[in-house]
Amino acid sequence: MESATAEEPINQKSSFDLSFKTKSKEINDMLIDIENKSIKTDNFHDILQKINELQELLNDSKTFLPAYNMKKCSDEIKDITKRYEQLHVKLQPKKKFTFGKQPTRQPTTPEAKAKAEEKFEPISEPKVYKEDCGFKNRSDENHLILKEDESFMKDVALDTLTNCIVLICGTPSTVRATSLTQCHVYVCATTSIFIENCKDSVFICASQQLRIHDTFDTSFYIYVTSSAIIENSKQLQFAPLSLKGLILKKAFEMAKFDESKNNWKIVNDFDWLSSYEPSPNWCEIPEQERKQPYEDNMLLYLYPALLNQESIFPAGYYDNK
């Protein structure tokens, strides 16, 4: 009996190696076919689903897989995801989205047209960087906003921000947040979010994958379809994302996420591989202590014309908030 028990992890690893190799080859072959135009770009959704299945296979194997193999496979998934994103941006037609209603009737005179544009056009935003898709070296700013047409299928970068509130409308492909301190970030990314060297902040976010490195004393209200991965991080808190805010709710629907399939409780700590004791580096936020901030107060900054309306929210919208 002892011999059979000792051999079990070896058999599990062999089975994992075969499954992982088969699935990763299938994804790479599909990417090659799309690149060679052998199959339609409609298959992007199927490929993304297979990437998520590959990530879930790795997550389910952490109890018996050595740390070296975990990292090696994780890096391979990262490379596949990057290749997928590059092809998706290159081959898929880009669409632009706008938040809120646009006037249905065109003004008939130049004066009326100018007045209408002043009423409905969002005010101009601060300068961004990395091809107009991110913010860098900012402090004490409460309205760092990327609109939907600025973020759609882009790689958004947030770098060296202190005491800022960041709202990314719409659906960027990926988001990288580096060196943020005392910040609030609202975002819904269609693929992955990478957070590094952040502290004393709050992330309200949705994505397929979430990776957190070198981050401390930070809270996460998240939706994730695979799992969150943390490394060299401490004092992290997690809770499920609530979609009471209108802006993130719209982005969530645009990304076609399923609210019932949120794996926010699955947090893989690469510095804590024990399956018998919980990691000391993160915890769930008790339900009675969850105080997710909402982004709707930034609507008036995006659309000043709303100040002239009694309310854009349905009756009872703020009840139970």
Automatic annotation (TrEMBL):
One of its GO terms (molecular function) is tubulin binding. Pfam families: TBCC, TBCC_N. Residues 113-272 form the C-CAP/cofactor C-like domain. One of its GO terms (biological process) is tubulin complex assembly. The keyword Transferase does not apply. Keywords: Acetylation, Chaperone, Cytoplasm. It is found in: Cytoplasm. InterPro entries: C-CAP_CF_C-like (IPR017901), CAP/MinC_C (IPR016098), CARP_motif (IPR006599), TBCC (IPR027684), TBCC_N (IPR031925), TBCC_N_sf (IPR038397), Tubulin-bd_cofactor_C_dom (IPR012945). It comes from the Eukaryota. One of its GO terms (cellular component) is cytoplasm. Its main location: cytoplasm. Belongs to the TBCC family. Supercomplex made of cofactors A to E. Cofactors A and D function by capturing and stabilizing tubulin in a quasi-native conformation. Cofactor E binds to the cofactor D-tubulin complex; interaction with cofactor C then causes the release of tubulin polypeptides that are committed to the native state. This is Tubulin-specific chaperone C. It comes from Melanaphis sacchari.
